[in-house]
Amino acid sequence: MMQENLPEILFDSSYVSEIEERVYKQTMEQRAMGRKIVGIYCAFTPKELLAAADAIPVSLCGGSEKPFPVAEQYLPANLCPLIKSSYGHAVADTCPYFHMVDFLLADATCDGKKKMFELLQRLKPLHLLLLPQSPVPEESLDYWEKELYKVIAFLEKNTGNAITQDNLRKQIQVYNRLRRTVENVFQLNTHDIPWVFGSEIDAITSMGGFECDIEARIAEMETAMEKIRHRSLSGRFLAQMQKRPKLLLTGCPNTNKKVLHLIEKVGGVVAAMETCGGLKSTGRLVDEGDEPIRALAEKYLNVACSCMTPNSQRIEIIGELIDRFKVHGVIELTWTACHTYNVEAFLVREAVEQRFERPYMQILTDYSQNDVGQLETRIGAFLEMLG
To answer: ω before 310 within 30° of 0 (cis)?
Structure first.
């Protein structure tokens, strides 16, 4: 179902590269002035705490298969590719982001990551957040709040900066504005005809690595939205987009872009993404009227990750997104050996097909290019079925 005469793409990897280059330069300047850089690995880490300590967060989840040979000297070959990529870049010192971090904050999510963190702490100072893996009971929230106070003590000690209530409230407001802006980017695809490719959304909302100037990224996203709105006035563009089925991409973090790009190369549009860094993480704001630590605990404990049990909230989010974005089908991305998402895929398929009455397809893959041809055929057949 390959599309000829592809619609005009405004935002791609070159757009992201420009952001990365600028952000990297800004961060190095800030680092030279004494600011600390903190590596993080999961959506459960409250970035507001880091920013309130005048530290710069950077996500270190790897998206390339290149460091696998080095990683497999330490880790099992049949481990999740995200974990192998993250650790391989770290131990081989091939990631400029990891090279520059002063210390790490890591959440105890899946078993693979938890054990990988034991090796990572040999390379950089690491504080492990002991995440309670049930979002329901009140005692889980109380426990998680205590963990955040431990993070505050760790950050204050390692940055030399006090995390004041005023600074924390300010950063909560900043990150809430960022979440609203990301939501607004996705909102462009709630029309019957999508206005923007998922690959473009991924580029527009990318933080470019280091999060050293959130306000600048918000302004750039708003500028990008104006360009998207202007493009949507083109009848030719909308006519081409109307031919493409609208998809919801759910499942594992979209750290490697292989599946996202294949879906749109073959002829679909990823209208929305319920993934880490996507609408699952941005949809819930921090309550700005509540006591800040408690509010952060409530927001971040309610990330609908498959490491949580029960994780019924994820099913509700998927249903809401199906309705809001008027999607024709759901594709679930599962990285090889990600057992929590792979097991949960049964419940997702059941809900999507029976409760929400949409076609569903699971893609189980890794970071390699070996199965690209097979995936093109499978995705193409799925899109043909959607009509």
So the answer is: yes
